[in-house]
Design brief:
about 170 residues; mainly alpha
């Protein structure tokens, strides 16, 4: 049980937050990356792979912008509800389903595997670390000097901001 309750590592089985709080943290964290990944794959499906760097930059800018908005509106209840709503198609199982659909559409349209395989990997969450929306959420929620010194995981920093907890 101790390994689930470390404040340096976040685990969904931790006892510091209830299930509702964990769901809010996860939806807020996953939406910028999920939309970032969705836009990138969608652009690849629609326009092909020739301009993939430009598509990655466009999707990355959107992901970073959403991460910034999520971090700045973290205490706003309406914003939290919007991010929770957006998490349904762009995070978790919804995001995975959307990416699998894009993989099928991509193969159907192009008869090539490259974008389809990438979409499946994105859907499985294997590639999230490669997307700026994911990294921006971590960077923007590192916490203050005291929290960094305690090596507090960024999701607990987010919980402190949203729920006024004191980790």
């Amino acid at each position: 049980m101790e390994e689930f309750n470390s404040l340096e590592k976040y685990h969904l089985k931790n006892t510091h937050l209830d299930d509702h709080q964990k769901a809010i943290i996860e939806s807020l964290f996953q939406v910028p990356s999920g939309i970032n990944e969705f836009i990138f794959i969608l652009l690849l499906v629609i326009f092909g792979t020739n301009d993939w760097i430009n598509f990655y930059i466009i999707a990355g800018v959107v992901g970073i912008f959403l991460a910034y908005i999520a971090t700045k509106t973290i205490k706003n209840q309406i914003a939290l509800k919007i991010f929770a709503l957006l998490s349904m198609p762009f995070a978790g199982n919804g995001g995975m389903l959307i990416q699998f659909i894009l993989a099928i559409v991509s193969y159907y349209l192009t008869k090539t595997y490259l974008v389809s395989i990438l979409a499946v990997l994105v859907g499985l969450g294997v590639t999230s670390i490669l997307f700026p929306g994911f990294l921006a959420m971590i960077f923007l929620n590192r916490g203050d000097t005291k929290q960094k010194k305690k090596k507090l995981h960024f999701k607990y920093v987010m919980a402190n901001k949203i729920f006024d907890t004191k980790f």
